Input
Amino acid sequence: MYKDTVYSAFNLLMHYPPASGAGQHPQPQPPLHNKASQPAHSVPQLSPLYEHFSSPHPTPAPADISQKQVHRPLQTPDLSGFYSLTSGSMGQLPHTVSWFTHPSLMLGSGVPGHPAAIPHPAIVPPSGKQELQPYDRSLKTQAESKAEKEAKKPTIKKPLNAFMLYMKEMRAKVIAECTLKESAAINQILGRRWHALSREEQAKYYELARKERQLHMQLYPGWSARDNYGKKKRRSREKHQESNTGGKRNAFGTYPEKAAAPAQFLPMTVL
DNA sequence: ATGCCTTTGAAGTAC
DNA sequence: GTACTTCAAAGGCAT
Output
């Protein structure tokens, strides 16, 4: 099922990569905050597709993907140089997406002829784990089996937005610089850095995100973000807000009396 | 084992 | 149309 869809999309894109701006979504514009002094910006023309750059974290494809099918966001397999957003250097951001190997856009499993048959990382089993529970048919009703089968359907993840793509690329760099590992703290830093980027720099990521959405739509035409609603177990809204303003530690391990100011209002001193 | 924290942006829901 | 909610990633930490 996915195999066919993915492979069709692969062929389609190999031969007819969508033109810039041809997406079904309106072109997102970088936010205007802190950018007043900068000229209105149009998204830069992309270099031809398939202009790749190498990843600092190449990961060999698993020998047997049937054994494990887990979400492997940054573990881009070595696909003969098809790498994308894993460059460690901001300055080397590619002008194009490597359509078939972006961590969240890599081809799904069982692509005919593909040596590694890598599972599509946007498709993960429920809870991100491969279920291997013993199954006693005699104890299950048909309804239960059906419900179970439904629950086992792999989840197609949302495509990453511009900031998420930026985070993914810059996280390692920030961790190296700050010797922090806690993601909440790292993300605060990345949020400030994001706002410190120029419109042009941000535009690169908005363009990449637009292509992500475009490819995602082609790979999973019927998919909706709503499909994943409720799949994450969350606390109630009240509790959630309470924890944001209350006596819980923040990302830096402190216990603020009030909620921290939004990142955009923090001083522009970027770590 | 599971959810929270923390960020931004896209997309969904509710009114 | 507007406001609000959820989920994408990440990994340490709390429960």
